[in-house]
Amino acid sequence: MNRIPVGVIRGVCDYGDRRKNKNWQPYAAAMAASYGRALLDEIPSSDRTVDLTKKAYEPCYYIPFARNTRFTGRATILNSIEDRFFGPDQSQKMALVGLGGVGKTQIALRFAYQMKEKRPDYSIFWVPVLSDETAERAYADIAKKLRLQKSSEDEDVKDLVCQHLSSDEAGKWLLIVDNADDQELIFGSDEKSGLEEYLPQSEDGIILLTTRSGQVAGQFAQCDMIDIKQMDQEEAATLLKKSLVQKQLLHDETSVIELLTYLSFLPLAITQAAAYLNQTRAPIRTYLSLLRNAEDNDTRVLEREFRDNTRYKGSQNAIGTTWIVSFRQIQKSNQLAVDLLSFISCIEPKAIPQSMLPDAEADELEWAIGTLCSYSFLVRREESNVFDMHSLVHTATRGWLDKQDRKRQVSKDAIRHLAARFPTKDDAHYDLRRGYLPHAMRLLSRNHEDRTVETYQLFEKVGDSFNSDRRFKEAVKCYEEVCWWRQRLDPETDHIRLASEHALASAYLNDRRIKDAIKMLEHVVAVRKETLDEKDYDRLASEQVLASTYLNDRRIKHAIEMHEYVVAVRKETLDEKDYDRLASELELARAYVSDRRIKDAIEMLEHVVAVRTETLDEKDHLRLESEHELARAYVSDRRIKDAIEMLEHVVAVRKETLDEKDYDRLASEQVLASTYLTDRRIKHAIEMHEYVVAVRKETLDEKDYDRLASELELAKAYVSDRRIKDAINMLEHVVAVQKEASDEEDHLRLASEQALAKAYLRDRRIKDAIEIFEHVVAVRKEILDKKDHFRLTSEHELARAYLDDRRIKDAIEIFEHVVAVRKEILDEKDHDRLTSEHELARAYLVLQDCFESLEADYDDNDVRGIGS
After folding, report:
1. How far apart, in whole angstroms, are the C-alpha atoms of residue 679 and residue 670?
2. Is the pLDDT assigned to residue 244 strictly greater than 50?
3. I want to staple 225 with a disulfide (CB 3.0 to 4.6 A). Which of 95, 141, 241, 574 is the partner?
């Protein structure tokens, strides 16, 4: 401040001095102004001001569509929306209701962009409700836009967004809920909550909903709804003008008015008509003539279907008459385009891959697709070879085929084509199956009467696809269809029937339906033993899968016996580097680990790894799989450093070669995290477990076995980090889901219950812990051998809980049993054996302390008695 030029001070003083000549004051003011900048330069900006600026609210936009440059008119409706939201009697919720194709979405979109321009302090969000998935995806995208983070792993993203927008910090916002046609999706049912539960409420927020259903509109907005009718004549004419390439057609004003009237001034119908005129270059009168000659019967069919879809009384058949003309014209000029249209009517109308369409010469196919696109029946997604069809066009096409009595034949042809086109596991382009899958499922779900050979071939391929993507429940449904068909068609010794039963049993195993898998596999193995040589490939494959299923059922001795047989036969018949021989040795080693024959397992796994290291590339899946299993065996042998070194290598390679959501990559990361935990590198373990859980939450169903397993492992890490409350919250969720989804004897469910009991014990909820431990022990006593590792572990944990509850004799009784069994089956240096011996010794010491305490009390009483 001491360095401010003196002229500033002089100028201010002269200006303020009333005794100065008034003619001088303008010069004084100029001097003060010219030097005022110096004062600002000398005064630093306030940090507080900067902080407030940073915290200032910034609007956020999530509008998935660009501005519609062809939008026209609708000013009355837009003004009405504006008035209801911001007029004297303000509403916070509104609904636009009307027939499909009347322009509800486009009106909402125009209002959104008007809001963005006129009210820049409003955030704008858009949620399409075509399905649960589209709404969920929109909420997730909005959360990302808002940079919202979940406070807990199991928090619903919809609830997260809802809470934020309901809070003051969200500022002002507009939420558009589009295509809310399904009443159950919006308002829920007895079994499931609807989207309405996640719609935010705030004095600063407004919601605009679009729907075809008057019921949805009334239930959502009561009287605050606008019934969207067709355009007026001026608006419709402007839309046609913007849509037509040949503007000279508009010179025939009489024909234009007749056309628009015939089309009922519906925007979609006008757009479709313009697309036809642009394609054919025909005059409007020609098109009008074609419209008038359309058959009434076809029109009535289309009108009926539209009314069913929209539940809207008084709907006109304008769109139907437009489309029927287009269908006829395409049929005259391009039969392939008609074939494509017919095929597409049987599949999903969205995300249609070009590679899935019926075969044709490349140029003919492109021309046919171009024809459909020119009528706006198909819309290409940007520059891709994926197309969408308007859902009403889709419905209209089916109605047209039904009227021609062609719908059943078209459906059969579509199934035949897709059964041949759907990729198999051996195809180089197998990844294309994911794009085909929704379409195949729609075909199959609607095919109840005409079940052909191709139908079941498609079921089988779809089942294989679900199986590859670890969607085992869906795979089971498909394989069951195939098995049911084969069992009715073929004798039980038929090779193909047995193969389908084998595939279904494997899917049962992956879906944790262990008993069903065993029942079917025992049948398959029995038949193949009768009909096939003991060295037959298929017989050995079924025996190996049955052995693995026994292992999952904790019938370890049965599993080992069968695995050893398979390995022995394959050693006799196959080279030591053969894939199947090594695979069977790997499975046997896994069984040895479960039987606590760790040394035998390691010896076999080291052999498998050595062979695969010699014969396979470092990045090969099979080599990495065997290294993964060897590392797990090292963990069981307490060779933690060796295990970590190998797992870090496997994880590093899989990170380099696999997608972050890949099952095998996540499996290795989970095992490495658990090994870090064993090595007391708790922070590393938690970080990796949290990552695995986050990815699996994003990609897997809440009841998925692997997702629950990863949540279990993370909870164990939380316990080790003394985050007991976090662990308990997660474990209670896991156990609750498993009680609903799995059998009482399920291995993972019992493991989760045991982990929850241990967490309760750490939280000093001893009674709760004992109750669960006793349940787990009781179940495992029923289903497992007394020497089983998991049964002994649960008995050991129950004894520890009894000891904490001062039930010392009960604890000692169980510890003595566990120690006796482990002495019989385990090496004297085994970690589990040593742990149980240590706990038994501790129990003896506690009991001794109790006796000594009692004796001391007794002696004190004697002394007091003598003294008295």
Report:
1. 14
2. yes
3. 95
**Residues 6 or more apart in contact with residue 662 via CB below 8 angstroms:** 654
Q: What integer best gives the mean pLDDT of the chain?
A: 84
What pLDDT shows up at residue 594?
85
Query: Looking at the domain assignment, is residue 260 inside a domain?
Result: yes
Q: What is the DSSP string of 20-77?
A: S-GGGHHHHHHHHHHHHHHHHHHSPPPHHHHHHHHHS----EE--S---TT----HHH
Tokens matching residue 389: 């069809």
Nearby residues of 170 by Cβ (< 8 Å), 6 or more positions away: 123, 164, 200, 202, 204, 205
- Best CA proximity match to 178, nearest among 200, 150, 210, 205: 210
The CATH number for 153's domain is 3.40.50.300
Residue 677 lies in a domain: yes
d(CA 623, CA 605): 11
Q: Point out the domain boundary residue: 184, 206, 227.
A: 227
Q: Are residues 221 and 296 in the same domain?
A: no
Q: What is the DSSP letter of 431?
A: G
Confidence of residue 316 (pLDDT cuts 50, 70, 90): very low
**91 and 217: one domain?**
yes
Please indicate, yes or no, whether residues 400 and 343 belong to a single structural domain of this protein.
yes
298 in Cβ contact with 403 (< 8 Å) = yes
Question: Pairing state of beta strands 61-62 and 122-128?
Answer: parallel
Q: Is it the case that residue 858 has pLDDT exceeding 70?
A: no
d(CA 116, CA 139): 20
Alpha-carbon span 173 to 123, nearest angstrom = 4
Q: Is the pLDDT assigned to residue 73 strictly greater than 50?
A: yes
- Residue 845: give its domain's CATH number: 1.20.58
Beginning with the edge strand found earlier in the chain, give each strand of the sheet holding 122-128 in spatial order: 61-62, 122-128, 172-178, 205-211, 93-97, 225-227
Overall number of domains in the chain: 6
Please indicate, yes or no, whether residues 701 and 734 belong to a single structural domain of this protein. Answer: yes
Question: What is the rounded CA–CA span in Å between residue 560 and residue 393?
Answer: 60
pTM here is: 0.60
Same domain, 108 and 217: yes
Examine residue 755 and state whether it is found in any structural domain, yes or no: yes
3-state secondary structure 546-599: HHHHHHHCCCHHHHHHHHHHHHHHHHHHCCCCCHHHHHHHHHHHHHHHHCCCHH
- What tens digit of pLDDT does each residue of 320-341 get? 544 555 577 678 778 999 999 9
Q: Are residues 701 and 756 in the same domain?
A: yes
Query: One-letter amino acid identity for 509?
Result: L
Q: Read off the DSSP letter of residue 93.
A: E
Calpha distance 366→408 (Å, rounded): 27
Note the pLDDT of residue 25: 56
Domain range for residue 181? 75-227
Instruction: Average the pLDDT over each of 201-215, 347-361, 611-625, 758-772 and give the range with the smallest value.
Output: 201-215
Mention every residue, 6+ apart, whose C-beta is less than 8 A from residue 504.
476, 479, 480, 482, 483, 520
Q: Report how far residue 319's alpha carbon sits from residue 393's, in angstroms, rounded to the nearest whole number.
A: 9
What is the predicted pLDDT for the residue at 448? 75
- 147 and 272 part of one domain: no
Q: Tell me, yes or no, whether 192 and 247 share the same domain.
A: no
Q: Examine residue 508 and state whether it is found in any structural domain, yes or no.
A: no
DSSP 334: -
Find residue 206's DSSP bridge partners.
174
- CATH number of the domain bearing residue 408: 1.10.10
Q: Specify the residue for token string 């085909």.
A: 436
Write the DSSP symbol of residue 197. Answer: G
Lowest mean pLDDT among 83-92, 119-128, 264-273, 548-557: 264-273
More confident call, 611 vs 298: 611
Rounded mean pLDDT of 741-767?
Answer: 92
| Mean pLDDT value across residues 487-495 | 92
Angular region, 63: left φ>0, alpha ψ -120 to 50, beta rest: beta
pLDDT reported for residue 134: 87
More confident: 795 or 451: 795
